[in-house]
Amino acid sequence: MSDIIQLLPDHVANQIAAGEVVQRPASVVKELLENAIDAGATSIKLLLKDAGKTLVQVIDNGKGMSATDARLSFERHATSKIRDAQDLFNLNTKGFRGEALASIAAIAHVELKTKLADDELGTQIKIEGSKVITQDVVSTAKGTSIAVKNLFYNIPARRNFLKSDTIETRHIVDEFQRVALAHPTISFLLHHNNNEVYNLPKSNLRKRIVSIFGTKMNEKLVPIDEQTDIITITGFVAKPEFAKKKRGEQFFFVNDRFIKSSYLNHAVVNAFEGLLEHGSHPSYFLYLDVPPNSIDINIHPTKTEIKFDNEKALYAILRATVKHSLGQYNIAPVLDFDRDANLDTPYDLTKKNSGTVSMPKITVDPTFNPFKNDVVPSSPVKNTTSSPSTNSYTANFKKDAGSWEALYTNTDFEPTPSVQQEQLFESSQETETGKTFQIQKKYILSTIKSGVVLIHQSLAHQRVLYEEFLETITVREASSQQLLFPVSISFSSADIEMIYSIKADLESTGFVFEEFTKESVVIRGIPTSITESQITFILEQLLDDMKMEVPDTSFSHFDVMAKSFAKSLAIKTGTILSSKEQENLVNDLFSCKDPNSSPFGKPTFKTLTLQEIDTIFNK
């Protein structure tokens, strides 16, 4: 039998490696930005076209490369960061595997320009699909400029898996924010399709956070600062009242590297115990500085997961540090052993009463009858004290005043049924079909001829609103109500860019925009179906939904908006509904084109026939 195992060609191996390293344009952005930081750059520019699909270019003023290094940088596992295996446990750089540029060059057109500070001329290299096309001497600025064009040009199947420009841009912005937050002393510039998205000058950490997430973020931040033998923790957490329903601004950095850790996140959430509403998530920007040899970064292709030597100790320190800061800045109550006893509330007044407290007297008017007009509707009572029924009631009340049960066992007082009570009694006997009952402020039970139907009020209302919004957006012309005073809402630059990208779609729902600035959106008209107080919540919910993975179809924006509006405005669990409201919701649900499920695929109701109910009790 002939041998069947063979070595893969380099260009095939590089494409396989690219599957791990380069998942989307944001992966390229992350690798190139980190390379620029490792090169000692103090100013980094990121230029994008078509959400990075057409162009991702990073320009830095770092130390640059020689002609030989420039050529070797595109070889697999060629790196200046490590020399032997032991160096993997003492890393102080972003990259170290030597896979990024080789993987990127295998699936794109790459053009590199670089020059050392002491050289007069630099080097230009052009590569297409791992193949070097040209290498020339050029005049260029100190540092490195690398342009990645036509990503996945030779793997069309991978390119087809990319999402819409809006979603891919969101992923790029996420990576850009993570790198920019980790290095506030470096200036960053981000341009997308020749539009400036971020211009972040060199600053401190607080200013960098505010520059990225808007000026409103400044008032939300509570500083964190703790130093121990095994870890130094700095950064900020947001005040509990600014917690979000979805995980928003949550950033962990270990030795200036962004990481994801559900274990450490649990420690922070635990520190907010008793301060957050159910389902809310705190925002935080926490920087952990630990000895490099106490962590293992080389456990995940994206290097966003880290293994710690002493996780339990870090958990306890992090939780205690956040809890202490919340108390120190009067966000949460703590024991204060340094308080001035002279400022305590005096309790001398208790001595005047010999330690006893007299209960307040409670007086009750036993003659009060709120239904006195209904008792004898034909003849108004002029003097309640002379009414026989009232005198009888008063006498019995005084007789048994010592026992509250007497109020409910008095058989002498039997007021005449009111007209309304009689009508209600008659109407309740007319039919048993179509009645509705609310259960636990969450479900609606409605009787039908074949049995009963149990409806989830929130999911049912989502379905009703979803179809209404979808029809308004796509079929009917939306109506808008003008605001007496335009409303200005603050967002981060990235969120404003996203809102602007769907501006036309939002206007088709009834929104009217007056102005877009770098930090705010001014709205002067809203759909008639919402109120002014709901604008911020609805737009924030829409942005969260837009950031999710949504199929790239021409209908997706409308569909996402309709779903988002429906989820934001639907009746919530815990809302008490009147009989009329219950009836209207049931009728509206079964008038929908698809009443069986919510916009998110959850069932809206469950029918129980009489036979199924009988089976329960006849087992």
Question: What's the quick description here?
Answer:
This protein has 21 helices and 22 strands.
Would you write up a description of this structure?
The protein is α+β, with helices and mostly antiparallel strands and 619 residues long. Helices cover 34% and strands 21% of the residues. It has an 8-stranded mixed beta sheet. The chain has a 5-stranded mixed beta sheet with strand order 9-10-13-11-12, with helices on both faces. A 4-stranded antiparallel beta sheet has the order 16-17-18-22. A hairpin with a 3-residue loop joins strand 16 and strand 17. Helix 1 packs across helix 4 and helix 18 packs across helix 19. It starts with 9 loop residues before the first helix and ends with a helix.
The averaged pLDDT comes out at 79
List segments where confidence is low: pLDDT < 50 over at least 5 consecutive residues: 343-354, 375-433, 550-555
CATH class of the largest domain: Alpha Beta
β-strand amount: 15-25%
The CATH topology of the largest domain: Heat Shock Protein 90
Distance between the termini: 67 Å
Protein name: DNA mismatch repair protein MutL
Family: Belongs to the DNA mismatch repair MutL/HexB family.
GO biological process, one term: mismatch repair
InterPro entries: DNA_mismatch_repair_CS (IPR014762), DNA_mismatch_repair_MutL (IPR020667), DNA_mismatch_S5_2-like (IPR013507), HATPase_C_sf (IPR036890), MutL/Mlh/PMS (IPR002099), MutL/Mlh/Pms-like (IPR038973), MutL_C (IPR014790), MutL_C_dimsub (IPR042120)
